[in-house]
Amino acid sequence: MDENDTSTNPQESGQGLTRRQFLSYVLGGTGAFMGTLIAAPMVVSAFDPIHRSAGGSFSKTNWKPSQFNDQYPLHVTFSQHIDDAWNSQDKPNDVYVIKYQNKLMIMSHVCTHLGCHVEGSDQPQPKFMASDVGHDVWFFCPCHGSHYNKYGVNTPSSPAPRPLDLYHYKIESDGTVSVGSNFQRTDATWSVNPNPTVD
Q1: If 0-12 CB within 10 Å is exposed, 13-18 middle and 19+ buried, where does residue 72 land?
Q2: Is Disulfide bond there in the keyword field (predicted)?
Q3: What 3-state DSSP class applies to 46?
């Protein structure tokens, strides 16, 4: 064998791969491929909530606008659909509904002071009238003493900083009400209601 002939030994000629290099590349490539297969679904799952539309879902009810009046709020319940990041669920919710200026005011039962559940009535609460002279009290928070009138507006002596939240709604083709997400009001904008008019 000629000493200058290196064609049979790729390691000496600088051409080709050694067995060790070949196995390193194959195992490294296989590991990278497997890592990508495992990581890809995790990345998609991690960014999924960013692509979801927040608060765009409405929950169908069996209520008709004609069930409600402008004299006193009516306490009703419905199953609210909630999409929260990766969680999607239906949970029971209760609200108070009254008509005002040909629109429904679907009021949250959550006190705006510290988030307690307010108690409501279909008539003014005389036991609270002394502390809120000149203000009819229809809702009260038993925990911290917030008072609200029949439109969910907090009375001046209440610790609550603002009126009860309202819910968006829409009227379906069959005439029933579907309830959407809630929105905040202030004392100055308590009557501003972006929802559609009803008969």
Answers
A1: middle
A2: yes
A3: helix
81 CB-near residues (< 8 Å, 6+ apart): 57, 58, 59, 88, 89, 90
- Least confident residue range of 53-62, 168-177, 183-192: 53-62
Beta strands 74-84 and 87-100 are: antiparallel
Question: d(Cα 102, Cα 9) in Å, to the nearest integer?
Answer: 93
> Per the structure, how many domains does the chain have?
2
Distance CA 151, CA 107 (A): 8
Enter the pTM of the model.
Answer: 0.64
Confidence band of 28 (pLDDT split at 50, 70, 90): very high
Domain that holds residue 119: 59-183
